[in-house]
Amino acid sequence: MEVLVIELKTAAEIDKMAVTGEFVAETLATLSAEAQPGVNLMQLEHHARKLVEDRGAESCYWDYAPSFGRGPFRNVICLSVNDAVLHGMPRDHVLRDGDVLSLDFAVSIDGWVADSAVTVIVGDQPDPADVALVDSTRRALDAGIAAAVPGGRLGDISAAIEGVAVEAGYRVNAEFGGHGLGRTMHEDPHVANRGKRGRGLVLRAGMTLALEPWWARGSDRLVMDSDGWTLRSADGSKTAHSEHTIAITESGPRILTPLSSGSVPSGR
C-alpha cells in the first residue's frame, strides 16, 4: 500500500509561498505579453532566466531530471506550442499568428515553491475553437479550486476538472496532472484531472497543491518529441494548459499565483 507523505503548511508558510507565487504570476504575465508574432521562443527563455536571476529565485526546472524525462532539463520555463502541451523544451522557433502557446513556470524563493501555467493565443486573430479550448482549461481550473475545501476529497477536485472538460467535449488524460508542492516542486499527492467525487484523500487545511487541467482538441493520448521532454497530442491537435498553486485553508481555497485582472487576455 502506497504511503503518502504530506506536509501541512502553517499560515506563515503559506504566506511565504504566496511571495513566490506573486513572482511566478508576474513573470508569466510579462512573458505572455511578449509572446507576439515574430518572437523566438528562446527570447522568452532568456528573459525568464534574467527575471529569475534578478529576483534571486531558484529555478525548479534547471537540471531537473525526473524518471519521465531525458534529463537534465536545461531551461527555466516550459514553452509548448500548438500540439505540444507539457514539458515543452524552449527551442529555436519563431511564433506565428494563431500559435497556441502554453507557458509553465516554477521557482523557489527562500525555500518555498510556486508553480503556474497559462496558455495564450499569439496574434489578434485567434481561431474560435482554440479560444474555446483555452477557456475550458481556465474554467476547469476554477472548478477544481472551488472544490479544494477542508473535509472534501481529492476526487472532488479531479471530478470537478473532468466535468468541465467532458461538458465541453474534450477527453481527459489522467497520466499527468496536478501535484502537491511546497519545499520542492513535486510532493504528494498526485492530483489527476479525472476522478470520482467522494473518493480519495481527505482534504485538510494546510495542504498546498498545484492544480493543472490540460487537454487537446482531439486525442487524449500523448507522444514524446525526440528531445525526450516535449509531450504532444497524438493526433497533432491543438492543446491548452492552465495551472495555479493553491492552499487549502479553513476559510476556503487560496490562490497563491493570482494573475492580475487583464494580465492574460481572454482572446489570447
From TrEMBL:
Q: Which UniProt keywords apply?
A: Aminopeptidase, Hydrolase, Metal-binding, Protease
Gene expressing this chain: map_3
Q: Which domain of life is it from?
A: Bacteria
HAMAP family, A to Z: MetAP_1
- Name the CDD domains for this protein: MetAP1
Positions annotated to bind a divalent metal cation 2: 115, 179, 212, 243
Q: How does it assemble?
A: Monomer.
- The residues the record assigns to binding substrate are 87, 186
EC assignment: 3.4.11.18
UniProt organism field: Mycolicibacterium arabiense
- Show the InterPro entries listed in the entry: Creatinase/aminopeptidase-like, Pept_M24, Pept_M24_MAP, Pept_M24A_MAP1
List the catalysed reactions: Release of N-terminal amino acids, preferentially methionine, from peptides and arylamides
Q: Which residues form the Peptidase M24 domain?
A: 16-250
Entry-linked PANTHER family: METHIONINE AMINOPEPTIDASE
Citing just one GO molecular function, the answer is: initiator methionyl aminopeptidase activity
Report the protein name in the record. Answer: Methionine aminopeptidase
